[in-house]
Specification:
The chain is mainly alpha-helical. The chain has helices spanning about 10-15, 20-30, 30-40, 45-55.
Length: about 60
């Protein structure tokens, strides 16, 4: 599998993928499912996603 986001921070991944604004909107809307969907698109797994959701108060 091609891991085009390897070595990038979450913010860098979101920016490069063009998903930064969508992510911010999902967080503002407290849309846990949409946040999760976006994080999966930038190649994050549950081990990374769960702590992010907790930090955002969405878990």
């Amino acid at each position: 599998m091609d891991r085009k986001y390897a070595g990038m921070t979450v913010n860098e991944r979101l920016y490069v993928a063009g998903l930064f604004d969508q992510f911010d909107r999902a967080v503002s809307d407290k849309d846990r499912d949409k946040v999760r969907e976006i994080l999966i698109k930038v190649e994050l797994d549950d081990n990374s996603i769960i702590p992010i959701l907790k930090e955002l108060g969405l878990e």
